[in-house]
Amino acid sequence: xxxxxxxxxxxxxxxxxxxxxxxxxxxxxxxxxxxxxxxxxxxxxxxxxxxxxxxxxxxxxxxxxxxxxxxxxxxxxxxxxxxxxxxxxxxxxxxxxxxxxxxxxxxxxxxxxxxxxxxxxxxxxxxxxxxxxxxxxxxxxxxxxxxxxxxxxxxxxxxxxxxxxxxxxxxxxxxxxxxxxxxxxxxxxxxxxxxxxxxxxx
Length: 202
Description:
The protein has a single domain, classed as Glutaredoxin. The longest helix has 18 residues, at about 55-75. The radius of gyration is 16 Å and the shape is globular. A hairpin with a 2-residue loop joins strand 3 and strand 4. By secondary structure, the protein is α+β, with helices and mostly antiparallel strands. The chain starts with a strand and ends in a 5-residue tail after the last helix. Helix content is about 55%, strand content about 10%. The relative contact order is 0.21.
């Protein structure tokens, strides 16, 4: 089975922009996706990354311009400077991990959380916001919130972060296929080319 290890931060505007295209790519290539939310500030601290608010004005301005270009290209709206930008994503990440462990398809869930931040100006570190997202999706709210506090789920979150660094990941979203890292939703075409060219493993 061809498998994509998908490392992403639950505050990643770029992950939001690439979400549907990754799913379509996987469907075309008959590949599975392993959804692996990570603690990106931790990844940055170990790989030399710089959090957005600490970057130079030039780099911050370029991010806004690049987001605008991609939003036009894809026909997707995001607010480059939302009211609650990049709060603690721990609970949101653990909810996604818990849902995935329960066998719930997580595309709609993680997209809805990202949309809450980047489109609806909501604070995704607020349990009430996350509860509302789960309710709107018709998911089992109380059981997922409880599972998100489980030590095993937190350990999985930490393991995802460690595994990301071990794999060479340093940003979000990153896609790892057979040991090769593709960083950024603008590398999805190259990821697909790599998958298409690879033999199916028994």
